[in-house]
């Protein structure tokens, strides 16, 4: 397929995910007239989560739940049992559950419940300080597929063109083997998210409200750049 046609086909398939990390962001999301395709609830950021169930019900799009490992950017330094309990508690509200590859061992009961409820599983890796070699990324994607992941998500550092090039190469290499969501952080993070949305990344993560990490884009900015590309 010619490159132009491949990019056009990929763009029609990606979905936006609005990341909610604060109660203010949750209120903003519930009032959106043009919401993203999905919302991600960062339960580690919203901890403690009393009365969150009722607020989730007001969201105008399906929900991904995750409780991030502290070594992969998780907040409040939550141990595995606390993160497992949060995911169990909010599983009935979820369309997807995102679990880090490093956390799979020890969450077997949760994984079994996810499968029985027919909730989709995202297996993720967040390496916010560097980018792994291509072979390592491919091995992690293969493991995620073997675990039954519907999506393998990778967020990694993209400060240089070489790092961004490796991430793009990874997506091209494995996108026919497993559904991929890939994004960069750092100096080229914003550029990476636009390029990857056009190059086969199935889920494009954006912030609800002000971005919290370098390279993340707000939903409004992401949509604005895509409109400019379409008009070019």
What would you say this structure looks like, in words?
The structure is a single chain. The chain is an alpha/beta fold. Helix 7 links the parallel strand 6 and strand 7. The longest helix is centred in the last third of the chain and has 14 residues. The radius of gyration is 17 Å and the shape is globular.
Produce the secondary structure layout.
Layout: H1 3-11, E1 15-20, H2 23-30, E2 38-42, H3 52-56, E3 63-66, H4 80-90, E4 96-100, H5 108-116, E5 120-127, H6 134-146, E6 151-157, H7 161-174, E7 180-185, H8 189-197, E8 203-207, H9 219-231
Parallel strand pairs: 1-2, 1-8, 2-3, 3-4, 4-5, 5-6, 6-7
Helix pairs in contact: 6-7
> What percent of residues adopt helix (DSSP H or I)?
25-40%
| Oligomeric state | single chain
Could you give the order of the helices and strands?
HEHEHEHEHEHEHEHEH
**Amino-to-carboxy terminus distance:** 22 Å
What does the radius of gyration come to?
17 Å
Strand order of the largest sheet: 7-6-5-4-3-2-1-8
Mean pLDDT: 92
Number of strands: 8
- What does the main sheet amount to? 8 strands, parallel
Per the principal axes of the C-alpha atoms, what is the gross shape?
A: globular
Q: Briefly note the structural class of the backbone.
A: alpha/beta
Range of strand content: 15-25%
Weakly predicted, low-confidence segments? 1-11
Number of helices: 9
